[in-house]
Design brief:
This protein is of the alpha+beta class and 340 residues long. It has ten helices and 15 strands. It folds into two domains: 163 residues, Aminopeptidase (3-Layer(aba) Sandwich); 169 residues, 3-Layer(aba) Sandwich (Aminopeptidase). Helix content is 31%, strand content 32%. The strands form two sheets. Strands 1, 2, 3, 4, 5, 6, 7 and 8 form an eight-stranded mixed beta sheet that branches. Helix 7 packs across helix 8.
Length: 340
């Protein structure tokens, strides 16, 4: 029997407490003190209703096996740009017996849909640094690490990561080193998919997922060292694209940068993601004083058409410069663009 998703109720309190306690017991040092530290669990539906939010429960054969909630951000607790239009995702838990069934995705999806319908433009959540499985889940859903670790004065001595993502529309943002590291899994999926589609990259299909992850770990390191700028694009809350600026230029070329690894999820092709990434990469280059951009791509590719449409100038081409997905020699076109 599949779990039933329904609005959470105050009378679910014992089920919620048992669920959370079971999840916490999987991690050493996580201790529950309901009345001392989590009194809201005694009437959780009322708590989120009064906060302007909503609560969901997943019930299976009379037992609470999952939960999730959302509410508007507390203006006193967040930065100015997060106020009003940001909502917080809270208390996402799934019992061990119900994991791997898609229940966690359904619960978080319900919370995201509710926040979007009420005008939220960004989502934020906090998760214990020990909850590594939860981190992977949130990263799969397009969330990335943001800001510093939060220290809680509780008996579990909790430290929490802050995760966030844009929720609506097409948004392009630069990631810092922590955010880049948290996006590695999703970016690896994009890279594997792009190679499978025959994109003009230095790999040939099929690209091993481990090789892709290792590549993005190097990119995260370069971001931390100031050698690269990493931009990613979200479309309706899903991370669907990326592009990079290489900053590690020779001493005689501090004004130059190389644009590379423009990747867009094929599922959102022709929805403006690639163009948005390229326009934002120009802004980023201009903002750090880089006035000359260079890149290359395989002749006849969709990327070539995009670069021409965006005003890039062809420098020339080299016949047979790389192999295509069929292991046949392919011509590569080199482009440049000057920034005022």
């Amino acid at each position: 029997m599949k779990p039933i998703l329904r609005p959470g109720r105050d009378e679910d309190s014992e089920g919620f407490i048992s669920l959370i306690e079971g999840c916490w017991s999987e991690y050493p040092g996580c201790v529950m003190d309901v009345d001392g530290e989590l009194p809201e669990l005694r009437a959780l539906a009322t708590y989120f209703t009064q906060a302007g939010g909503a609560l969901w429960a997943a019930e299976q054969e009379g037992r609470i096996v999952g939960m999730a909630a959302t509410r508007p951000m507390n203006p006193a607790a967040e930065r100015q740009h997060d106020r009003d239009k940001a909502w917080e995702i809270c208390k996402v838990y799934v019992a061990k017996l119900a994991r791997g069934t898609g229940l966690a995705h359904a619960l978080l999806g319900a919370a995201e849909d509710h926040a979007r319908a009420t005008g939220a433009e960004r989502l934020v959540l906090w998760t214990d640094t020990r909850f590594e499985t939860a981190h992977r889940f949130y990263e799969k859903r397009g969330f990335v690490r943001q800001g510093s670790i939060r220290i809680l004065d509780d008996i579990s001595k909790s430290l929490e990561f802050r995760y966030g993502k844009p929720l609506t529309g097409l948004v392009v943002e630069a990631l810092d080193a922590a955010a880049a590291a948290s996006a590695e899994r999703r970016l690896a999926e994009l890279l594997v998919g792009a190679v499978a589609q025959g994109a003009s990259l230095e790999w040939l299909p099929p690209l091993d997922a481990g090789v892709a992850r290792a590549y993005w770990k190097r990119v995260s390191s370069d971001v931390a060292l100031g050698k690269a700028v990493l931009l990613v694009a979200w479309l309706e809350g899903e991370l669907v694209g990326t592009v990079q600026l290489g900053l590690d230029m020779p001493e005689n070329a501090p004004h130059r940068t190389e644009v590379s690894k423009l990747l867009v999820d094929p599922r959102v092709a022709r929805q403006g993601v690639g163009a948005a990434l390229m326009r934002r990469v120009e802004q980023a280059a201009r903002g750090i004083g880089r006035r000359l951009l260079v890149l290359d791509t395989r002749r006849g590719s969709a990327a070539e058409a995009l670069y021409r449409e965006l005003g890039w100038t062809e420098l020339g081409s080299i016949p047979g410069f790389e192999l295509d997905a069929a292991r046949q020699p392919a011509d590569v076109v080199f482009f440049w663009k000057g920034l005022a």
